Every structure is written in structure tokens, then in C-alpha cells.
Amino acid sequence: MPFRIRIETERGGSAPHDGVHLSEKAFHIRGLLDRAESMDRKVILLRYLDDYGDTTFNWLQRPDLINDISVLEGVALMLEEKELLRQLRYLIAKWESLCPNDYLKFYGD
Q: What are the phi and psi torsion angles at 72 (to 5°)?
């Protein structure tokens, strides 16, 4: 499923950043999550991504999101999966430089 990922203000507006659109690569998120689960690697937050709805993460959840990306990097096999995780890390780094009242939002299909 495709995801569009944005950093948003607490009022739902766009925060200044480069957004990421993961349409053709989004299936790798599910594959990575499934692979991590089959290897008994714990993913805390990204397992709750809603393929058909929207999923919002707040500032206090950043450490767990970063940990989830690290776990997925450990099971990533394909170059496309590694690139997807690199893009997510980049977006989270942008988010960290903004206001603590901003949110990272995944828009499902």
C-alpha cells in the first residue's frame, strides 16, 4: 500500500520540509515488518501503520520510531528497502529540527 508521509503542525498544516511519497516502495514496509516479526525482532510503533487510513506519531514517540528503523535496517535485504529506510531517517531528522508540537503523519491509500 502506498503512503505519503508529511510533517504537520498541531493544526494540521504542512511544516517546512521535504515530504516523502512512498507509493511504489511502500510494500517494502510491510515486507520488512513481516520479516522482522518472523525473526522475533521487536518493532514498537511502525507495526501500527494503517495501510488504508492515516497514522500519526508525536514528538515523544521519536525514539521508538528511530529504534524501529534500526530494527528494520537489520532485516533489510534489498537495496530498495535500505533506500526506503534512509528516506525515513532523513524525514525524522528534519522533524527533529522543527517544533516539538509537530507530528509525523503517514497517509495510507
A: -65, -35
* pLDDT (tens digit per residue) in 55-74: 999 999 999 999 999 999 99
Residue pointed to by grid coordinates 532485516: 75
Backbone angles phi and psi of 103, in degrees to 5: -125, 150
In DSSP notation, 39-64 reads TT----SGGG--TTSEEEE-GGGHHH
Q: Are 2 and 84 in contact (CB under 8 A)?
A: no
Instruction: Specify the pTM.
Output: 0.83
Regarding beta strands 4-8 and 103-107, do their DSSP bridges make them parallel or antiparallel, or are they unpaired?
antiparallel
